[in-house]
Amino acid sequence: MTENGTHGIRAADAPADIGRRVLRLRTERGLTQRQLAEPAYTAAYVSTLEAGKVRPSGTALRHLAERLGTTVEELTTGRSPRLATEVRMRLTDARRALATGAAEDAAALFGALREEAAGLGLAPEEAGALLGLGDCALETGDLTEAREHFAAAERLLADEPLPRRVPALRGRATAHLLAGELRYACYLLETAVDELNASGMHDPDALLLLYTASIAPYMDMGAHARAAHAAELALTLAPQVDNPALVAGMHRGVARTLIAEGRIAEADASLAKAQELYLQLHIRTELAHCHWMRGYVRAQNGDLDGAESELRTARDMLASKRAALFTVQVEVELADVLRRRGKAAEAKALLSPLLAPSALGAERGAVHAGGAHRLLGLIAEERGETESAEEHYCAALSLLERTGAAGDLADLCRLLGDLLRRTGRIDAALDAYRTGLGHRAAPGTTTLGPAPTSPPL
Fold it and tell me: Whole-angstrom Cα distance, residue 231 to residue 245?
């Protein structure tokens, strides 16, 4: 945003600056003031304009631009429209670099483009670069930095219609989700849905993005009915959307609700659709996420061998892109499969490094950090190390209680209660069971407000 609060118009856009540009371009083209003015204006008007004594109207600017063989933008800002086109093309190249390569490398491209777009007063392109920087930070696990980039993009687009701001808002919600702030992620997404529907801006792309993004926090909070409703609305909107990446993301999100409902074959089919689209688009991170979720589907269906294969593929793909946070999250899922396959030592060796602050923690993937402690507690319990198991269960509880992940909390309370009961601490076990029942009662209804309104479909 410029000093005068408008987008794409620089402070130099004063009558004197416009007059100098008109004079320069007229002289370069060998036109007299009369030739430039006719037939709509007079030579005296052009003379006054070139002297910087009057600001031309929009109609006058269009006339002058046509006669001078240029654009209104170049007259008002001194910026060639070719520059904006070139920046947009390089943004596409940076997006491609992020899709196929390492986030750090793409971030360097986006950073340079942000500075260039800001210098040229290209607010939409600067916002696009900030979105790219936010997505890079999500991959590397710099969640605070990601939120700052997405928030900066929202501020740049503050005067734009809400659908234009939705990608930045969704990015900020995703950063909060990955940090374990599930309730706030839901609040951001639901507020945007309500605002879109209330204003009558039923933009299919924006709504599909918001409904798809809301599925994950709903599921983690145990609000399965809301997740299923969001998935249903997303499926209804999909035929109106031309962006294949949005449709692929929708199929991946919907698969999670199908898994929860036990519709494993349908979930796998939905993931296959997403995977096919991501392959066509060459988006390796999202393709890795499909392998990740297919591994989860196979684990839920008892196919542990297939699950391990899919999860290892996902981990290798993410590691090759240096997507640090996603890589360690997949490793938690892989460790669970390894433990269930009787490879407890390998699972423990995989999990222990993940609990370092630089890998996972309260501010960096709290749900998966809690999952890692839970698995280490199970491994310790299977070895008869009850004290170590209890420590891990309590550490997991501490992490998950901040997130509101109802289902995970209830399961953890059951494990802790069983451990306490077996060691003769009945009262403490009862307390743990009661806490778990509290998390399971009416999941989601105590932590979320009214459901967002549905669009007229």
Answer: 16
Q: List alpha helices for 51-181, DSSP H.
A: 58-68, 72-77, 81-100, 103-120, 123-140, 143-156, 162-178
- Encoded tokens for 53: 């004594």
CB 288 within 8 A of CB 314: yes
**How many alpha carbons lie under 13 Å from residue 373 in its C-beta half-sphere?**
27
User: Two tokens at 348?
Assistant: 């423990």
C-alpha span between 315 and 272 (Å, rounded): 18
The stretches of 264-323 forming alpha helices (DSSP H) are 264-281, 284-300, 304-320
Distance (Å, whole) CA 181 – CA 1: 30
Report in angstroms the alpha-carbon separations of 322 from 104, 140, 174. 8, 7, 19
Assigned token pair, 209: 């993005």
To the question of pTM greater than 0.85 for the whole model, the response is no
Which tens digits make up the pLDDT trace of 275-303?
Answer: 999 988 888 888 999 999 999 888 888 89
| Cβ-based burial of 341 (10 A; exposed 0-12, middle 13-18, buried ≥19) | middle
Strand partners, 361: 364
Closest CA to 109 of 91, 134, 84: 91
Distance CA 261, CA 219 (A): 11
